[in-house]
Amino acid sequence: MRNVVRILTGLAVPVLTAAVITAGSPGLGAYKVKQGDTLSHIAGRYGTTVSNLVALNKLPGNGNAIYAGEVLKVPMPATSTPARRSQLGRVTYIVKSGDTISGIAKRYHCSRANLLAANKLKAGDPIYAGKPLQVPVKIRPKARTDNTFAGRTYADHIVAQANRNRAILKKRKQPTRSQVRSLIVSASKRYGVDPQLALAVAWQESGWKQRVVSPANAIGAMQVIPSTGRFASRIVGRELDLLNARDNVTAGVVLLSRLTGAARLDIAVAGYYQGLGGVKKNGMYADTKAYVTNVLRIKAQLDRGWNPLR
């Protein structure tokens, strides 16, 4: 729930931190999500698409609820060669027949002297086909990705708060998805909200996972931002801890109760994502329309007895 912030042949092997890959099904591998990963970057790394990863891993919504430590299935080529490691700022180049030190240096825009020094060679030392050389290169720093979500960029202090909350949740034992589901149903009945609607929103937001935190500092199973948590706290008459699954669910369900009491269903769902004031002022943004469509589709499936945990 993000309703207040919208700022929103030769072989050269680049130096990369190796991903964690384990054996999987034929044609599949397993990737352990690292801090700062996004589904689009993982898809690009393995030559696939976000939609394919969402389908392959049965991820909620558009796959924005992945978290560090989660293991995802990823497509793998029929054969693969372990990536070489080299020091930061270098690539490994396998010498081909006819190569020269000067030619390799020119190709990689480094000086001949630096190339010789990196390989402890002297001028005139021979190189031969098949010999690996360490080539000094300038590697551009990766663009920051931990401060963007759904096309929006968030202020550094918000991202810092999100990172702290994510770290806290990672250290705590969290309820299972089934337990979160029960909490949502119970809170919905208590506050007069259709349980299937609350379950659909939570599945779209987090897949019923309490440890999820977005760059916008939307926290937990219901993806509640702190200002909404304070709003819900005033309604229930006590301070809600969004890092606690029961309180997180309470905050999200209380917000839904107010939204559904103030607007028709599709507008209420849009208000959970974009903010009701923003929807009334600007209409639904394109991503909001997609969000509403997804939530209502999930609700319809739940109404028919679908259980995503089976």
Write a structural description.
This protein is mostly helical and 310 residues long. It is 44% helix and 9% strand. The chain contains twelve helices and eight strands. The strands form three sheets. A three-stranded antiparallel beta sheet has the order 1-5-6. The protein has a three-stranded antiparallel beta sheet with strand order 2-3-4. It has a two-stranded antiparallel ribbon with strand order 7-8. Helix 6 packs across helix 7. 32% of the residues are buried. The N terminus is likely disordered.
Q: Largest sheet, order of strands side by side?
A: 1-5-6
| Termini separation | 26 Å
Q: Which regions contain 5 or more consecutive residues with pLDDT less than 50?
A: 2-26, 78-88
- Count of helices? 12
Q: What is the averaged pLDDT score?
A: 82
- Give the H and E element order: EEEHHEEHHEEEHHHHHHHH
What gross morphology would you assign?
Answer: elongated
Largest sheet features: 3 strands, antiparallel
Q: Would you count the extended β strands for me? A: 8
Helical coverage, percent range: 40-55%
Q: What radius of gyration results from the CA coordinates?
A: 25 Å
Alpha-beta content class? mainly alpha
Query: What share of residues are in beta strands?
Result: 5-15%
Organism: Kribbella karoonensis
Pfam families: LysM (PF01476), SLT (PF01464)
Protein name: LysM domain-containing protein
InterPro entries: LysM (IPR018392), LysM_dom_sf (IPR036779), Lysozyme-like_dom_sf (IPR023346), Transglycosylase_SLT_dom_1 (IPR008258)
